[in-house]
Amino acid sequence: MTVFLDLGQRPDEPGPPIHGPATYPDDVVERLSADAATIIARYPQSRSALLPLLHLVQAEDSCLTPAGIAFCARQLGLTDAEVTAVATFYSMYRRTPTGDYLVGVCTNTLCAIMGGDAILESLEAHLDIAPGQTTADGTITLEHVECNAACDYAPVVMVNWDFFDNQTPTSARDLVDALRSGQPPTPSRSGALCTFRQTARTLAGLPDPDSPGAGPVGPATLAGLRFAHEHDMAAPRPGAPTDSTPDETPEQAVAAESVKDEPAPAPEAHVPARSSTTETNPDEADES
User: Fold this and answer.
1) What is the extent of the structural domain holding 111?
2) Half-sphere exposure (Cβ direction) of 30: Cα atoms closer than 13 Å
3) pLDDT of residue 84
4) What ranges does the record give for the region Disordered, renumbered to this chain (predicted)?
């Protein structure tokens, strides 16, 4: 029987993987090139700047476009295909225009147990949009997000990747109403909420110098540290042996030093033959 598989993007992604304008006006290229030079100068190899450059062009367009892909490629001496391969791998790079506030609701295990599913359903009904869509006024894009390691204050709603902890359907509706009215509330763990484009510039390594920075750290986040202090626990000193790592003999140290700069061995093309004992009676081999 012949089976045909349809390969490509998800059905809910419109158009080609990256779509939009193909080029930037000259004044935009000049402005972005100055920012790109600042970013690239931080890296010994220019292509290492690709991820922050993608955030830079996302700040320009609110998503990735062929113009942004081409700009990154020209700055780093890469092909458009090489940049696109990276850009389509990471979920933080958007493929469709994004509102001023990207509202993400976590429904992974703990957040779901604590009410994340109800929050997402409530926001879908309240905003009259589905995940992946943007409100008609361009203010809010709603999305379902995977775990963001904020389980200490579940259920969590993220706005432009800033945390809003201990949410309920009611508080989440109040949150998006405040965003749409132009009065963004202060996130749980940072000093102020930025727009999506401002956040993208921060992720590109070009933060607003007047940004208030991080907010307070809550007691649930510090519970492990408190326990460690109360029980006089500390991390081992660098280089100190641990219970699971025996002391290294002088001979082992010399051997390790002699091969430290050599590449790891390549995979072997053959599978070692099993012993005759294992082949004849695997149970006896396990017992031995």
Assistant:
1) 101-203
2) 3
3) 94
4) 1-20, 231-288
